[in-house]
Specification:
Structural class: mainly alpha
Radius of gyration: 16 Å
Number of helices: 3
Length: 98
């Protein structure tokens, strides 16, 4: 019985968390809109986007682990999403360093 309640909580928490992360991303992109490449604001935007994408990766892995404990198939979706966001984050960091 408790697994059903936990599953319902995750069903609400997952999409709500993703929506909040997407809203934060659009806020960051709009706030730093028009900043010149190489300026301090541009570097701040990149740092905030890297932090947010790392947070999104961890959130998706946590959701995947929670669904895996419940043995539900949603865990596969969250693992795929976490890997996609994580590879984007890694590619972004690697291209910035080179």
């Amino acid at each position: 019985m408790y697994t059903q309640v936990f599953s319902l909580i995750l069903l609400v928490l997952g999409p709500l968390g993703i929506i909040i992360l997407l809203l934060l991303t659009t806020y960051i992109l709009r706030y730093y809109q028009g900043s010149n490449m190489g300026s301090f604001r541009w570097h701040l935007k990149n740092a905030r986007l890297k932090d947010l994408s790392a947070l999104a990766t961890l959130f998706c892995f946590a959701m995947a682990a929670s669904y895996a404990v419940l043995q539900e198939s949603w865990s596969i979706l969250y693992v795929i999403l976490a890997v996609k966001v994580g590879t984007w984050w890694l590619r972004f960091v690697m291209s910035e360093r080179s």
